[in-house]
Amino acid sequence: MALIVQKYGGTSVGSIERIEAVAEKVQQYRDRGHRLVVVVSAMSGETDRLLGLARQISERPVPRELDVLLSTGEQVTIALLSMALEKRGVPARSYTGSQVHILTDNVHNKARIREIDARKVRADLEAGRVVVVAGFQGVDEEGNITTLGRGGSDTTAVALAAALGADECQIFTDVDGVYTTDPRVVPEARRLDRITFEEMLEMASLGSKVLQIRAVEFAGKYNVPLRVLSSFEEGEGTLITYEEEEMENPLISGIAFNRDEAQITVLGVPDQPGIAAKLLGPVADANIEIDMIVQNVAPDGKTTDFTFTVNRTDYEKTLEILQDVARALGASEVSGDNRIVKISLVGVGMRSHAGIAATMFRALAEEGINIRMISTSEIKISVVVDEKYLELGVRALHEAFHLDQSGD
Amino acid sequence: MALIVQKYGGTSVGSIERIEAVAEKVQQYRDRGHRLVVVVSAMSGETDRLLGLARQISERPVPRELDVLLSTGEQVTIALLSMALEKRGVPARSYTGSQVHILTDNVHNKARIREIDARKVRADLEAGRVVVVAGFQGVDEEGNITTLGRGGSDTTAVALAAALGADECQIFTDVDGVYTTDPRVVPEARRLDRITFEEMLEMASLGSKVLQIRAVEFAGKYNVPLRVLSSFEEGEGTLITYEEEEMENPLISGIAFNRDEAQITVLGVPDQPGIAAKLLGPVADANIEIDMIVQNVAPDGKTTDFTFTVNRTDYEKTLEILQDVARALGASEVSGDNRIVKISLVGVGMRSHAGIAATMFRALAEEGINIRMISTSEIKISVVVDEKYLELGVRALHEAFHLDQSGD
Asked: What is the dihedral sign for C-alpha A189, A192, A195, A200?
């Protein structure tokens, strides 16, 4: 008998039939004796329909009113799911983000949760009810409706699980777990039984879009065990938890990759304190997110070379900004390439094992793949390669680290 | 410069184009220096769409959740209208029933307003904003979303006007005012410039479905001047206020009629105290609303005859109930007719004028219309006639009282 927070995304509640299927699943869990809080998104297509209405009025609708509009999407789902539960004889009660008091800051369209007053939910659980909560939305201190931004329902679920001290937060989605890599690229990719928060964060930020990164951070921070499972198939999914001491961690958990990268190089920058900030500050000021940064001393010893990556959509703009900055700083050259990709090995096991990088580079070299940039962290090694080598590189690494075989 | 509460119904906000047109109208009023609170319904069709979703799950969805579902309809409209106003440079702010704290009882699907905390609205008005409020909805003491039942947006508008001490409450609809009778029956029917609350109540309850009856009661109780106007055409509409002393009231304001009536007669009921309650109690217990009631002493002096009308849809059920009751009471006969209609003359002027009834009966007699039942009140005379005489009767009365000519 556990307290479980479950979250069902837009596809899982995309029609009346699917809502009925979710109700049935919830009932099964309840029949096993669990207490349940269910967080739902808007029915798939609904958010786009509402956005379409707003855009007919204005290309840039007032953010406050956009939140009032979009938050109706989940409100429809909580009502329908509660009806479906009650029809099955399962006592249920729905709450909007405002009713259950998911207090957020006042940044409309991308608010952050500050606090949840879980008293109402607790009282309902004690009365034997299933509590159905609208994901993605909250309320600011003045009572204005806010939304957490797209995909924010995961965060709602995790925050509720943390506030309630739930035993597990289950994210139901259209995949049945976290894989060693994208199965569309490597058919041998294997579902992981478990993965650590840190690994998941690296996997998520690098493009394995199973979970919202903020939700994983939140879960890690409050130590909420997170499980990703399929709404449509049976299975245990993937459990995301903290590394356990007694556990023999696999060397590598997975291979993430990102196709949306572009690389920019500034050569011959006079090497002096604060030069990185001078160079990259204007880029950050333009709200462009910088991903990998590599700095090398140039052969002459007096200048330095910078290479970094940005999102491909920001490529032109970044180049433009840097032409000016580089000229002002006396750099010799700015160049770039927007046909590159990033491949990353992720694994907490890497901390205690040497030679991972060497194996990685050898595997890529054997396939004739030229590495253009390398960046490492404690549990991740990322390389930038030519776009055309993406699939070849990921497959080579998957094989080299035997990720198709279970480490258990 | 006045404080005006305006209400726009579902047809008036039925599309993005119409919402833009409402925004334009609101802007015009504001440009003339008025302070405005705008109450809106769900876009036409939206409530039915939501009901359709609920009915796919259950023929009798849980009332609490139905309110959560249906209340999204107006929430969409307030957001879109506020966006349209802001786009025009008119500062606006939307509020759900819960946000603006329209406190109701907890009778889901047909809640009644208890209290409105108008502080937020006042603060916004003082800051120069147009306040856009979702009609038809409120919140109970425990924070549950409630709805006032269909058409309840009129009541929201009147209640807000009362709470704010507004100068006028304007109900924009698809007709341009209140008419002497239905223009589809009498082409000469004339729009009334003004009518009293009492007359309007009689007109509304008798089938001139321009305004929600509860809204008129509310407006009368709190003395809120109510104006009915067209969303689509220019014009002054009809003002509904209290009778003014100095005003020369027209004899008759209008002719209402109701096609949905059925008549039931119980003959030979032993005349004893409490007999009416014994006879009609079981009908009321079955939630059947009784309209006109007429009691006559029978020729023998010891028994009495009852005739009353009910809604035509309740006809069979009422007959069934009465067969049993009449037998138990020893009545001699129960009969009925469901092909009858009610026609009513309404006018406060009737109070101080004699001979109205005589004129009415004569006009009907001249057309060969047999009167089956008569019932009078201080400002109304109703007759029941055969269904087939409805149009003929209404036209004859319209002419007899010269309603096509302005009384001013």
From this structure: positive
The answer on A165 and A44 residing in a single domain is yes
Sign of dihedral through CA atoms B96, B99, B104, B106?
A: positive
Please report, for chain A, how many H helices and E strands are present, in that order. 11, 18
What 3-state class would DSSP assign to A382?
A: strand
- What is the model's pLDDT at position A207? 58
- A91 CB-near residues (< 8 Å, 6+ apart): A85, A127, A128, A129, A130
- Report the residue of chain A nearest B80, measured CA to CA: A54
Give the domain extent around B266: 255-400
Nearest Cα neighbor of B53 from A135, A68, A13 is: A13
What's the whole-model pTM score? 0.81
| Per-residue model confidence as pLDDT tens digits over B21-63 | 999 999 999 999 999 999 999 999 999 999 999 999 999 999 9
Distance between CA A188 and CA A80 in Å, rounded?
Answer: 39
CA of B78: how far to CAs of A45, A57, B39, in Å? Answer: 21, 13, 8
CB contacts of A144 in chain B (<8 Å) are: 99
Q: Which residue has the higher pLDDT, A397 or B201?
A: A397
Q: Check whether residue A307 and residue A159 sit in a common domain.
A: no
Q: What is the CATH number of the domain that holds B365?
A: 3.30.2130.10
Residues B156 and B277 in one domain: no
Which of residues A167 and A285 earns the better pLDDT score?
A167
Query: Which positions 265-284 of B are in contact with A (Cβ < 8 Å)?
Result: none
What burial class does residue A293 get, using C-beta atoms within 10 Å of its C-beta: 0-12 exposed, 13-18 middle, 19+ buried?
Answer: middle
Cβ distance A16 to B56 less than 8 Å, yes or no, reads yes
Whether the pLDDT of residue B206 is over 70: the answer is no
